[in-house]
């Protein structure tokens, strides 16, 4: 089975599942695939919106119900939860909308918000706004990258597999760089 067949068969499922967790890499690649005509940009954004909203809503409810127990079980999440609480006190609505854009807070951020006593309806509305912005911006970045490559290379079909690998490598390298920088202080 070729990678284009895999993309056609499992691409939308990968977008949804990836968006449930930390799906930036999957979403950028899906945006690029949409530019190439393998996926529909509308469905990529719609599924990312649904997956991102559902994922953060689930983590919010887990924080609301089991937050303290989870932090005791996974102590490495405590610094992220403390950071999210500090930010929540200063930037309430902006944090709820933007938590998915903050590195290291994608999972623990909604959990910490759930532990904070933010009303469920408020989180749900702001989470939906944040997921919509995230889905459009991240998928749009992949789509625009495809457009830029098409502009640079007239015969992009010859280079698309390499371009997908390049995008994935750049996103992974950036994530590793941020993680190493965060650990270093």
From TrEMBL:
TM spans (from-to): 12-34, 40-63, 93-113, 125-149, 161-180
VTT domain residues: 23-142
Keyword Membrane on entry: yes
GO annotations of cellular component type: plasma membrane
One Pfam family linked to the record: VTT_dom
Keyword annotations from UniProtKB, A to Z: Membrane, Transmembrane, Transmembrane helix
InterPro entries on file: DedA_domain, VTT_dom
Top-level taxonomic group: Bacteria
Protein name per its UniProtKB record: Membrane protein DedA, SNARE-associated domain
Organism, as annotated: Pseudogulbenkiania subflava DSM 22618
């Amino acid at each position: 089975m070729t990678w284009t067949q895999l993309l056609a068969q499992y691409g939308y499922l990968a977008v949804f599942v990836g968006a449930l967790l930390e799906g930036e890499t999957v979403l950028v690649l899906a945006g690029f695939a949409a530019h190439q005509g393998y996926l529909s940009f509308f469905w990529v954004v719609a599924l990312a919106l649904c997956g991102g909203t559902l994922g953060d809503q689930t983590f919010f409810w887990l924080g609301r119900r089991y937050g303290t127990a989870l932090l005791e079980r996974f102590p490495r999440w405590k610094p992220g939860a403390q950071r999210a609480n500090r930010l929540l006190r200063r930037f309430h609505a902006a944090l709820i909308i933007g938590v998915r854009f903050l590195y290291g807070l994608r999972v623990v951020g909604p959990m910490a918000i759930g532990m904070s006593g933010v009303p469920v309806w408020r989180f749900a509305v702001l989470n939906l706004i944040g997921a919509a912005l995230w889905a459009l911006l991240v998928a749009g970045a992949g789509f625009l990258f495809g457009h830029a490559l098409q502009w640079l290379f007239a015969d992009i079909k010859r280079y698309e597999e390499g371009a997908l690998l390049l995008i994935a490598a750049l996103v992974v390298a950036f994530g590793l760089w941020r993680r190493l920088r965060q650990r270093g202080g």
